[in-house]
Amino acid sequence: MTKPDALVLRGDGINCEEETVHALNLSQFNPVRVTCLDLKEKPTLLKQAQVIVLPGGFSFGDEVRSGKVLAVKLRAYLQEALQEYTSAGRLMLGICNGFQVLVQLGILPSGRLLLNDGERPVTLAHNSGGKFLDRWVKLSVAPGAGGFYAGMGGIKISLPVRHGEGRLVLRQDEDGSKIAALSPLRYEQDINGSYDRIAALLSEQGNILGLMPHPECFVRPGQHPQWTSLPECEPDGLKLFANMRAMLN
Amino acid sequence: MNLKARELQSKDDKAGQDSTLKQYAALVLPSHCSSTKSSRLACPLYWFALEKPGSEVEARLEKMSGELLCDSVDEVFCFAPLEKVSDFAVHIDGGFKFAAVRQLKSGVTDNTANSVAQALSIMGLGVEVQVSAGTLFLSVDSLENVAHNSLTEKVKHFQLGGEMALPPIPERRHSVCGGYEVVDINLADQKLVDLSKERLLSLNLEEMQTVKSYFADQAFQAERKNHGLPASPTDVELEIIAQTWSEHCKHKIFNATIEHTDENGKTEIIKSLYKSYIKAATEKLKSERPDLLSVFEDNAGVVAFDEEYAVCFKVETHNSPSALEPYGGALTGILGVNRDILGTGLGAKPIFNTDVFCLPHPDSPFVAGLKHDKLLSAKEIVCGVRKGVQDGGNKSGIPTVNGAVFFDDSYRAKPLVYCGTGGLLPLEAAGRDAVKKHTGKGDYIVMAGGRVGRDGVHGATFSSLALDDNTGSDVVQIGDPFTQKRLLDFVLQARDGGLVTGLTDNGAGGLSSSVGEMASITGGAVLEIDSVPLKYPGLFDWQIVVSESQERMTFSTDKPDELLALAAKLDVEATVVGRFTDDGYFRVVRGGATVALLNLEFLHGGAPGLKLKSRWQPPAINAAKPEVAASGRQLLDLLANANICSREPVIRQYDHEVQGGSVIKPLMGPQQISPCDAGVLLPRPSGKKAIAVACGMAPRMSTYDPALMARMSVDEAVRSVVSVGADPDTVSLLDNFCWPDPVESPRNPDAQTKMAQLVLSVKALHDICLTYKSPLISGKDSMKNDFDDGRLRLSVLPTLLVSSLAMVPDAGLAISSDFKQAGDLVYLLCAGTPSLLASQLVPAVAAFDLPRFDEHLAISLYRRLYQAISQKLVRSCHDVSDGGLAVCLAESALGGNLGLKAELTADLFTHLMPKCDDATLLFGEGPGMIVVSVAKENQKQFEEGFAGLAGLKLIGSVQETVCGFSLQFGQSRETIKLELLSMLEAFQSALPFEEDN
Does the distance separating the beta carbons of A12 and B124 come in below 8 Å? Predict the structure, then answer.
């Protein structure tokens, strides 16, 4: 069986592409590293892709607001191609800075690229503690979650977070319950002031996922901070990539 | 004449005034910002300038900048021509009465503005726009303390309610000057010294005389004539010589001839400390260590990792820049050492960073009591340095895996900022041996990355001077991690594509140093400075050649077109700036005319050596022995000591997991609080073999016994990697000396003692490296860590940082420091004894014994421990460090959230010393000690592994959490009993790293 391609965006200050590629390799994908310019110059790349992953990092140095400038660049280079891609219901995964980019594009939670900034219902703002935070957190998967979280509904998982701007904020008068319903993942403890402790957002169709924690950094048991005293377990991050692979079947 | 006057700065600024520019301001406020919710706000403020804009362009700028800068979900955008900013007032809550604008000074790197300008261009603004980013502070109360650095930023205060006016956009520097001048050096001695001082050349009389006689050489004069050069040197030539011969680049003190007199009055002559001891130690170990692929040659030491890869490691310091501008200094420090790794061999990928800070504690009475207008506050230094390393590491995608923070009053004026980086280097790249450089005659010189400006002019010579009044603001550098991340991607792709034959960093000394050094591979180079891309016009020729503008690397290539095409694709600016030759000369050319011509042999080998004197007299330790209570209260106080308490507040702000390779993180265990002795990571994610990285230092011991200081530093660095499961026979070490000036002058009367401290520590370093069979693979020295304004002189403690790198053959066997299970037995391995001298409790001179240390026993114990770890007999290991045994045991208990019952008997160290007093037993610090926990069922096998060796002591057992921490000690058999929670509270009491905005 040939492995399906998964596009992995790189360049412009993205810096988690190698471990993302590694996670995709472990999950039977064929990862293909691409820059914004590659996607612009070779439109077939995006046309034929089934999966695109926006890894974590500090695109454009996190200046102005995390993810903002890369979102501006993607919009300028690929507006129509992205509209076509998202409306076709194909898979998209944004991790940390990649999640921030998807939120800035309006793709999350709406599931489509929004042209008017005023339509975006949510944004990601500075952590309430005002600081960058690297630590492992416990998260609960929403009951009944499928797709990316198939078989994980209602359980608790562990993943690392590494961000300074992960606090989900709603536009005033936005219906909170609507947004809450789109979150498959919540922090067990309030680590950054995020609305309803939301750690991830899923598009309504379930094909686009963005999350602040880093699933690509828990694909080996020895990445867990307590591995030296725990029995070996299946790493929670790897499950997510395996599920994404299963969604293509 | 100071630096500023020479550069005609004020004239430049006026020349930059351009009346056709129209300026705008944009302010981003939080939605529903109210003064009742927060009494103080910091809002992003931007300036724009357009040249002769039409109304259409203006409207486009307003629209696009609004879309870019403001997030309509939670922000409000205000935009107006600069003269109409009063319009902003309607958006500002009336409760705010006071405001302040913080703005960068002209010429200072503005990373936010650069990203904004790039974004506006991508969005299709279509015209060139000048951007500057700043901050508007709003406050209910008066705003007196707006954090800013007066070298790089200015602050303007005003009250709200009246007319609002903002300062104009910082001007771009323009000037009409440029070119070079000829400098007469046919001068008498005093005039030569004056010339060196005026031009900030930092060359001493002998060096100036050497230059003078070099230019008097007839053959050289004939060659100059051929190139149309005058008989006297150009300022370009003088500056190149000064940079190349600077202490920073040439390590004159480590290569000096030293007359050393020991305490018995016996005198010896040492020709180069570096060659006689540091390099010599490695040479002697080379036959036993075939993994040493490149040592002391390249930008970093390189050791073999596996069949396909090598690892390399380099540690640098950035002390003087961090004293002036802590954030920028630390940021450029970490980015600079990253480039050293990128520039090793044909280009290594940075895979980890380390950071060690020696800082003044803001609350120490000495620090708080010392007010000086030339010194930043300790708080500013501490917070700025921390933040700089955060941005440097995190934004580059390199995990910070190990480090240390040490507070001492001696770092009040010059903080020590050690930045280290490790890299992964393929043994072969595109068919070439990638450990070596392959620069050939005829190869093109390509400069890539950032542009050249006046920032960092004279950085190398400046770091070799004591900080004083005349230190110019142009030496300030701010790094740009985003530009460098692009450069990093570029380097690795160029290497894999076979597009480079060699490369090196543009660090200290700029092009003069990078091209000058690479030129010695082929035997010559021609640098065409009119091709060098500049940040702004009007640099003098010498400034272009020696500028230390950041994020630049120099490449040699035989495929310039392909290399430039790759650069364009990755948005990296790359330019051909010359060729490598073999005529023996480093030649600088502008518009076809030669402006500098220097023989490479003279440049790299012509500097006269220094001759220095060293005299050692051990200090009298005669003060009374202070009373130290052997109590639980004392243990809690120590856990809350700034040099001991948890580093968690710093660690959490550094990304230590990016790249996915972490095995042993800085904090481990069920609550992620157990401080680990070394970082362990997998260089290749799918592999089994890992590397361990750690460091050691004992600067307070320098005053009493510099040799013991060096031995303890090496021991700690080795012991720390052994404690996480590394093989002690694979350790490679790096030495970084940061010393107070050991060169005699009227203001430095005890220079000979400082020199003696250096001699003794270097000799001891050599000896223990041989005992441990741990070679030194790279090192650096910084020998002028003094502040002197003519009245006040402050010098750092002689500080040696030893960093270690070792192999963990199976990552699955790595060990963390937390106790794992109640019932496990707790052992102490001891090849050294504790002492309260120079400890956290008694930092000053007092009548205590020095620690004793049997280094042969130590390395034997470490080898046996490694065997035990390989047989899976060990549950936890923790090295005994600051705060002594009691603190070490407390950390392992807290780390595992488990109790402890142990007894430290007075005769614990009888194989090394007679009975130990209670306080020393509990809190004394010393080398050679590790606490180990072992499952009960493995007791016999574990103990058998140490058969025939003294120094393995069973001291207690791990208990359930509820049992708490119980430590019996000494002849009295008194017991310290504490609950874990109270210990945790003390341990996590904040480090002084909280920032105010």
Answer: no
Is position B31 within any domain? yes
By residue range, what is the domain housing residue B64? 18-159
Domain housing A26: 5-247
The amino acid that residue A154 corresponds to is G
Tell me how many domains chain B contains.
2
pLDDT band at B621 (very low <50, low <70, confident <90, very high): confident
Measured in angstroms, the CA of B659 and the nearest CA of chain A are apart by 6
Q: Report the residue of A75, A165, A229, A238 to disrupt the B interface, i.e. the one with the largest count of B CBs within 10 Å.
A: A229
- Facing residue for B73 by CB, picked from A77, A120, A219: A120
Q: How many CB atoms lie within 10 A of CB B915?
A: 14
**What is the pLDDT, as a whole number, of residue B463?**
53
Domain boundary among B118, B136, B159: B159
Please report residues of A whose CB lies closer than 8 A to that of B68.
64, 68-69, 72
Look at chain A and report how many structural domains it folds into: 1
Q: What's the CATH number where A10 sits?
A: 3.40.50.880
| Residue B452 per-residue DSSP state | B
Within a domain: residue B634?
no
- Which residues of chain A neighbour B389 with C-beta distances below 8 Å? none
Task: List the CATH number of the domain containing B848.
Answer: 3.90.650.10
Average pLDDT of the segment spanning B57-66: 96
Burial class (CB in 10 A: 0-12, 13-18, 19+), B151: middle
* Lowest mean pLDDT across A158-162, B320-324, B385-389, B685-689: B320-324
Q: Which of B579, B332, B589, B324 is nearest to B450 (CA)?
A: B332
Q: How far is B65 from chain A (nearest CA, A)?
A: 11
Domain termination residue (choose one: B109, B134, B159): B159
For chain B, the first-to-last Cα distance in angstroms comes to 37
Could you tell me if A136 lies within 8 Å of chain B, comparing CB atoms?
yes
The nearest CA of chain B is from the CA of A176 a distance in Å of 14
Q: Give the nearest chain A residue to B668 (CA atoms).
A: A225
B880 assigned to some structural domain = yes
Cα–Cα distances in angstroms (integers) from residue B703 to residues B699, B706, B710, B736, B844, in the given order? 8, 7, 12, 18, 10
Which among A60, A73, A136 has the least Cβ separation from residue B482?
A60
**Cβ proximity of B358 and B378 under 8 Å:** no
- Predicted confidence (pLDDT) at residue B118 exceeds the cutoff of 80: yes
Q: Active-site residues of A: which are they?
A: 96, 214, 216
Does residue B303 belong to any structural domain of this protein?
no
Q: How confident is the model at residue B572 (pLDDT cuts 50, 70, 90)?
A: very high
Cα distance from N-terminal residue to C-terminal residue, chain A: 12
Going through B532-655 in order, the beta strands assigned E by DSSP cover 552-557, 574-580, 585-590, 593-599, 611-615
C-alpha distance from B997 to closest chain A C-alpha (Å): 11
- The residue of chain A with its CA nearest to that of B654 is A134
Output the pLDDT for position B644. 95
Among candidate residues B913, B511, B928, the one with its CA nearest the CA of residue B712:
B928
Name the residue type at position B367.
V
Contacts of A249 (CB under 8 A, 6+ apart): none
Neighbours of A232 (CB within 10 A): 10
Torsion of CA B720, B722, B724, B727, to 10 degrees: 140
Which of A22, A73, A77 lies nearest to residue B660, judging by beta carbons? A22
B858 is written with which tokens? Answer: 């130590």
Chain B residue at shortest CA distance from A75: B123
Tell me the residue ranges of DSSP E strands in B563-682: 574-580, 585-590, 593-599, 611-615, 662-664, 667-668, 674-675, 679-681
Rounded to an integer, what distance in angstroms lies between the CA atom of residue B591 and that of residue B358? 47
Q: State the Cα–Cα distance between residues B672 and A227, nearest whole angstrom.
A: 11
Q: Higher-confidence residue: B478 or B76?
A: B76
